[in-house]
Amino acid sequence: MMNRLFATAFVFFAFTITACAPKPTAPVPYGDNAAAAAYAEVNGIRLYYESYGSGEPVLVIHGNGETLASMRFQIVHFAARQRVIAADSRGHGKSGLGTDQLTYVQMMEDYNALLEKLRLEHVNVIGWSDGGILGLLLAIHHPDKVGKLAVMGANLRPDETAVNSWTAPLLAPVSAMIDEKIQSGDTSTDWRHSRQLMDLLMHQPDIPVEDLGRIQAPVLVLAGDRDIIRNEHTLEIFDHIPQAHLAILPGQTHWAPMTDPDGFNALVAKFFDTPYTRPESRELLQRALNPE
Q1: Does 90 score more than 90 pLDDT?
Q2: Domains of the chain by residue range
Q3: Could you please report the per-residue DSSP string of the chain?
Q4: What mean pLDDT do residues 226-252 have?
């Protein structure tokens, strides 16, 4: 497991826990499925993506150091009812890198360009971890593109007001190891690429909380109650989005889309299928106290 972590720059807090997760019912090679695969030329790179199902489109976005395959449980579930588009983000999987410094804004614009290429004017979006960050940015900068948005384990900034304090001590030795590998000229993997992924993780994003007020789409903000992201920060995100629902998943971690896909997918599907409302307890109490 640690070799994979080192090779992917200790992905956005993403220990690979596939062995602990339930297996998909269909033996589809998500992330390497020639029958569903294509490339789009966007912003100077070739962006790899796969498309499944038919109907209203939903875009699913994976986390740091992962590929679209990490969203396989969401692909399986939602492709049974609608069209699913899943891509490898810039610098991940089969997609090109094309830069010396990855940024979330750059990666978000790649997804916007992909939607343009596919002539998709309006999509629902599911984003996990870094994918949640990209989903928020897409809804901020291209509000016309996003119908509804579900974000799991997203953060607005990389500091300890957003991320639990035990995270940095875990990342520090991995970051140092990457630097040592670069300095020693080690060629066992592309350590400079790993450095970019680590920098993305440690120094980004930088989304002003006020920008959340620009989001027009209804948003389901999710996190595990034992997430890497602080519960207070998840609540901060929820509080600043004009149309938002909040789901803190009991007994779950940052990896709930993989470890509890049935529960996660059911919540997201219900949110997508149900017209958005935001009932207020104050109004209900007033009605109870002052019946007409």
Answers
A1: yes
A2: 2-289
A3: -HHHHHHTTSGGG----GGGSPPPSS---TTS-TTTEEEEEETTEEEEEEEE--SSEEEEE--TT--GGGGHHHHHHHHTTSEEEEEPPTTSTTS----SS--HHHHHHHHHHHHHHTT---EEEEEETHHHHHHHHHHHH-GGGEEEEEEES--S-SSTTTB-TTHHHHHHHHHHHHHHHHHHT--SS-HHHHHHHHHHHHH-----GGGGGG--S-EEEEEEEE-SB-HHHHHHHHHHSSSEEEEEEEEEETTHHHHSHHHHHHHHHHHHHSPP----HHHHHHHHHS--
A4: 98
Class of the 2-289 domain? alpha beta
Residue 21 pLDDT: 53
Half-sphere exposure of 173 (CA within 13 A, CB side): 4
User: Is the confidence at residue 15, as pLDDT, over 50?
Assistant: no
Token pair for 237: 């995100």
